[in-house]
Amino acid sequence: MIVFPEAIPAPSQEFSFGKEPSTVRTSMESGAIRQRRTHLFNRFKASIKWELTPEEFDLFNQFLELEAAGGAAWFLAPLYTNNTLVNHKIRLINGTYQAAYKSWGGWVVTSEADLEEIQTNGEGYYWIAKQGEELIPIYVDFMEKIVNVDLPKIQFTKGT
């Protein structure tokens, strides 16, 4: 997987996204309109903005051209979700972006991008929240133990 360079800062914390439809509606000559799911995974479309120095802007252009197939390839890029910087699998729509030179001597780059998914608290959080808020601290304690206690003890061997 192609990874966005660490030498280029993450996009602005302010970005917006919308879910692409995963259903198709068919009007019938008689009877109710039919609606069916076309695929299992949701796609999201996001508006992303970077504020870059001239050097970072040059690196951004070179990354897109040399590694990300002109922006058409999927790559991992850091985006802020839930006030946390998390890598998301994205690609620029049609490989395009807009850049504006600003009076402070840098560039503001904006682009529309496809996101494979939005990183959130996850499905498990939904089911626990649905059962009642009193279970949320139990879930958080459970996950904290897994991440900070159990996972560091696992010994991974090469080839597995």
List the helices and strands and how they pair.
Elements: E1 2-3, E2 16-19, E3 23-26, E4 34-37, E5 44-52, H1 54-66, E6 75-81, E7 84-92, E8 98-101, E9 107-115, H2 123-131, H3 136-153
Parallel strand pairs: 1-6
Antiparallel strand pairs: 2-5, 3-4, 5-9, 6-7, 7-9, 8-9
Structure in words:
The protein is 25% helix and 32% strand. It has three helices and nine strands, in the order E-E-E-E-E-H-E-E-E-E-H-H. It has helices at residues 54-66, 123-131, 136-153; strands spanning 2-3, 16-19, 23-26, 34-37, 44-52, 75-81, 84-92, 98-101, 107-115. Strand 6 and strand 7 form a beta hairpin. The chain is extended.
Task: Summarize it.
With 160 residues, this protein is an alpha+beta fold. The chain has three helices and nine strands; from the N terminus they run βββββαββββαα.
Rg to the nearest angstrom? 21 Å
Distance between the termini: 19 Å
For the largest beta-sheet, the strand count, sense and barrel status come to: 7 strands, mixed
Strand content: 25-35%
How would the global form be characterised?
extended
Low-pLDDT parts are none
